[in-house]
Inverse folding.
């Protein structure tokens, strides 16, 4: 088990992550703890089993939960995080809600630190394609929509943040672990038998070369460019605003920082401060009043 968890830890470190760094540090710390002491007791694992994203029972407003770490097929993380998000399942739930006639709106009830890239841009495109007048799609940060979760929220007509909520962490990073010294200390020598000049570059059993670092940087850059483009389109700002460093003045979206509800609205990263219940009630009242366009749903501060 210790060996397997260490493999998970290396795999976790080697991916490009669209996740709030504090949560990533928590995951790494828990993986290291499990490597040292083994998994949690089975009874605890059952009580903390992750819940799937599910739509509410049919009604005036569909509420879809997006809770936990966005990490496709990562059941190994269930031991260190109570919930993980399958975007494949979420997409099915969303499409079912979007196909229902005459609903007053769709709400994404989000509490997620983000995760990896898999299916995130596809999910944003799916949400954007489903938008139509008279049926708003609203993301509610209840209470956390960070990085990849905020990316998904930007596909919606509106972003709402609960009073105690936070949004942001627009960025991406990768971590390379060089475990060669630790392996040598344990008397382990790793030999790769390969074909392909770059097949094993970036592996954790040797220092990171300049060429491998450059290749990883390109992967980070490509993912960040997609992230920035969708946020800029969704929030109606220039990509330069999304990329801007908040320490250099001018309009910005945090440069990777998280912001509380009021500050996020002030910056244009969100549209209003409200609870989930208040948002459900508002969409019901809009439907009763004859429906609104997507633009009319948003706060008049920004639209």
């Amino acid at each position: 088990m210790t060996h397997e968890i260490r493999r998970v830890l290396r795999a976790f470190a080697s991916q490009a992550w669209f996740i709030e760094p504090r949560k990533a540090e928590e995951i790494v710390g828990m993986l290291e703890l499990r490597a040292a002491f083994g998994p949690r007791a089975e009874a605890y694992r059952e009580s903390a089993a992750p819940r799937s994203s599910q739509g509410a029972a049919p009604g005036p407003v569909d509420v879809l939960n997006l809770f936990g770490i966005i990490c496709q097929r990562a059941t190994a993380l269930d031991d260190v995080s109570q919930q993980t998000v399958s975007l494949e399942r979420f997409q099915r739930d969303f499409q079912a809600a979007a196909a229902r006639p005459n609903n007053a709106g769709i709400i994404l009830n989000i509490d997620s630190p983000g995760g990896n890239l898999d299916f995130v841009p596809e999910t944003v495109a799916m949400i954007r394609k489903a938008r139509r007048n008279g049926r708003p799609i609203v993301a509610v940060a209840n209470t956390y929509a960070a990085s990849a979760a905020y990316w998904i929220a930007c596909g919606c007509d509106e972003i709402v943040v609960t009073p105690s909520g936070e949004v942001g962490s627009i960025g991406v990073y990768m971590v390379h672990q060089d475990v060669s010294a630790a392996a040598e200390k344990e008397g382990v020598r790793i030999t790769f038998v390969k074909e392909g000049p770059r097949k094993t570059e970036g592996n954790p059993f040797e220092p990171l070369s300049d060429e491998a670092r450059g290749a990883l940087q390109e992967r980070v850059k490509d993912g960040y460019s997609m992230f920035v483009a969708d946020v800029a389109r969704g929030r109606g700002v220039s990509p330069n605003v999304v990329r801007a460093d908040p320490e250099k003045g001018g309009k910005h979206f945090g440069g990777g920082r998280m912001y509380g509800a009021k500050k996020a609205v002030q910056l244009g990263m969100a549209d209003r401060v409200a609870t989930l219940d208040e948002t459900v009630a508002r969409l019901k009242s809009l439907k009763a009043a004859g429906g609104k366009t997507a633009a009319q749903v948003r706060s008049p501060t920004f639209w």
Remarks:
- The chain is about 40% helix and 15% strand.
